[in-house]
């Protein structure tokens, strides 16, 4: 009688891989709901606002402030920030030659309105 030195695992691994593929394929086709309901739709403009959840504020070297590439005055900026949700990301892009006081004013306004997710965009040399 011949002695078996080791157990051949190749057929076992093949079967396990086939089962894994079957599970993955069947899971991707699962139905989200069997209930007879119609999910409400959101208009495109509102969906863009919901999806974005990010506001870009730019400050150029001449002291002009832009919100999402649109020029705004200081009062308009503050009114806009008042209406922004507190979990919105604020990206501040300031020119290196911009007035520091204006940058500080924008940061203070963000803090005043409770917008704590503010980031400053920089470039590496």
Note down, in words, how this protein is organized.
This protein is α/β, with parallel strands linked by helices. The protein has a domain of 71 residues: Nucleotidyltransferase, domain 5. It contains four helices and five strands; from the N terminus they run ααβββαβαβ. The chain has a five-stranded mixed beta sheet with strand order 3-2-1-4-5. β2 and β3 form a beta hairpin. The relative contact order is 0.12. The model has no long low-confidence stretch (mean pLDDT 79).
Describe the structure concisely:
With 125 residues, the protein is α/β, with parallel strands linked by helices.
Lay out the secondary structure.
Layout: H1 10-28, H2 44-52, E1 54-59, E2 65-67, E3 70-72, H3 74-82, E4 89-94, H4 100-112, E5 118-120
Parallel strand pairs: 1-4, 4-5
Antiparallel strand pairs: 1-2, 2-3
List descriptors:
Nucleotidyltransferase, domain 5; elongated; 4 helices; 125 residues; alpha/beta
Global shape: elongated
Sheet with the most strands, sense and barrel status: 5 strands, mixed
CATH topology type of the domain at 50-120 = Nucleotidyltransferase, domain 5
Kindly state the number of beta strands: 5
Structural class: alpha/beta
CA gyration radius, whole angstroms: 28 Å
The helix count comes to 4
Q: From the 3D coordinates, which CATH architecture of the domain at 50-120 would you assign?
A: 2-Layer Sandwich
Order of helices and strands: HHEEEHEHE
CATH C-level of the domain at 50-120: Alpha Beta
The portion of residues forming beta strands comes to 15-25%
Give average pLDDT, whole number. Answer: 79
Segments where pLDDT lies below 50 for 5+ residues? none
Family: Belongs to the ExbD/TolR family.
Membrane topology: Single-pass type II membrane protein
Pfam families: ExbD
GO cellular component, one term: plasma membrane
């Amino acid at each position: 009688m011949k002695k078996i030195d080791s157990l051949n695992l190749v057929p076992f691994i093949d079967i396990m891989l086939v089962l894994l593929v079957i599970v993955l394929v069947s899971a991707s086709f699962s139905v989200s709901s069997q209930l007879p309901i119609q999910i409400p739709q959101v208009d495109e403009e509102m969906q863009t606002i919901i999806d974005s959840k990010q506001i870009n504020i730019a400050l150029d070297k001449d002291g002009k402030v832009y919100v999402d590439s649109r020029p705004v005055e200081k009062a308009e900026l503050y009114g806009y920030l008042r209406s922004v949700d507190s979990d919105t990301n604020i990206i501040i892009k300031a020119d290196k030659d911009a007035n520091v006081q204006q940058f500080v004013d924008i940061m203070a306004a963000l803090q005043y309105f409770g917008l704590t997710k503010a980031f400053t965009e920089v470039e590496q040399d």
